[in-house]
């Protein structure tokens, strides 16, 4: 995001709209700006998109993605956003991909999601329990694996879209 003289934080997409003289914007007509705004908001706890917080923005973004698709989420943690995907995007199949494994690498040292191994196991088991009905119904498939290893499980063009929320230590 960039700062304006008023101290108001604006995302890249909203800045471009302002430069084009489009203060009031119908987001349904410019999905590219949504994706650029998402890129700005994903790593920062900032406010953007006409005052929407990151969580509210992501919920709104889900409403623009096609329903009934085959979807993957990379970086599941507790499954909170997985639930939002199920509720708002209504995929026919949702693949949850996460190693649920503590990382010893130094670049993960400041990642708040890099909890102890026992906590990772607890998260994994909680996700299995949380989505038990959807797993049993064939809607949710849980892959306890790294995304690069899980990628071989999917054919070209199989997934309609992917939400990536992995490592949180690099902007």
Account of the 3D structure:
There is one protein chain. With 171 residues, the protein is α/β, with parallel strands linked by helices. It has helices at residues 12-19, 31-41, 54-62, 80-89, 117-130, 132-136, 147-150, and strands at residues 2-3, 9-10, 47-48, 52-53, 70-74, 93-98, 140-144, 161-164. A four-stranded parallel β-sheet has the order 7-6-5-8. The relative contact order is 0.14.
Proportion of helical residues: 25-40%
Spatial gap, N to C terminus:
12 Å
Shape: globular
Largest sheet: 4 strands, parallel
Judged by helices, strands and strand pairing, the structural class is alpha/beta
Radius of gyration: 18 Å
| pLDDT averaged over residues | 76
Instruction: Tell me what portion of residues adopts beta-strand conformation.
Output: 15-25%
Element-level helix/strand string: EEHHEEHEHEHHEHE
Total beta-strand segments: 8
What are the segments in which pLDDT stays under 50 over at least 5 consecutive residues? Answer: 1-49
Strand order across the largest sheet: 7-6-5-8
Count of helical segments? 7
Lay out the secondary structure.
Blueprint (H helix, E strand, L loop, with lengths): L1 E2 L5 E2 L1 H8 L11 H11 L5 E2 L3 E2 H9 L7 E5 L5 H10 L3 E6 L18 H14 L1 H5 L3 E5 L2 H4 L10 E4 L7
Parallel strand pairs: 5-6, 5-8, 6-7
Antiparallel strand pairs: 1-2, 3-4
